[in-house]
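Hi Y.,

Following your request, here is the sequence exactly as I used it, all 149 residues.
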Amino acid sequence: MNKAFVREPEPVEPRCPAQDGCGSLGTPVTRRTLESQLVAEEAAKFSESAFYCANPHCEVAYFDAWGTSAPRSALRTAAYPKCVSAPLCSCLGISSDEIRREAEAGRKERVREILASAERQGSRCETEAPSGASCIAEIRQLFLKYFAG
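Below is the corresponding structure, written out as C-alpha cells. Let me know if you'd prefer a different format.
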C-alpha cells in the first residue's frame, strides 16, 4: 500500500483518568510543581511528567500518562479553581472575587497594576501555582468576563 494513503495515528492528549476523574485535558507540570503542591508521599508516586486537572468539580488534582493520580485532598494548600475561595494568584494572594469586583467597578488601572505585579512574580509560578503557570491569562479572562465598561 502506498504510504501517501496511510493516516498516521493522532497523538493521545493527556486526559484526567476517567475511573477517578473527569476526562478533561490536563496542563503539563514539572516535577518541581508537583513537589511544592503535593504532600511528599503523593509527589513521590509520579515520574518526571505529570498534568494538572483544573476542573473545579473533579477530585483528581494531578495525573500522569501511566495511570498515577493524586486527589485534590493531597494538595498542601487550597488551590484555585479546585477551591473557589483559594487565591486565583497564589503569588500575590489575589482572589477571583477581587478581580470580579474590580472589573464590575470598571477599575482597569487596578487590574493593570495586578497584572504588572504578577509579571514580576512570574518566576515563582512554577512552585506557587497548582498549574505551575502564570495566572496572567486567567486574570485577563476573568476581568473581561465581568468588565462593566
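The CA atoms of residues 56 and 98 lie 19 Å apart.

Thanks again,
Q.
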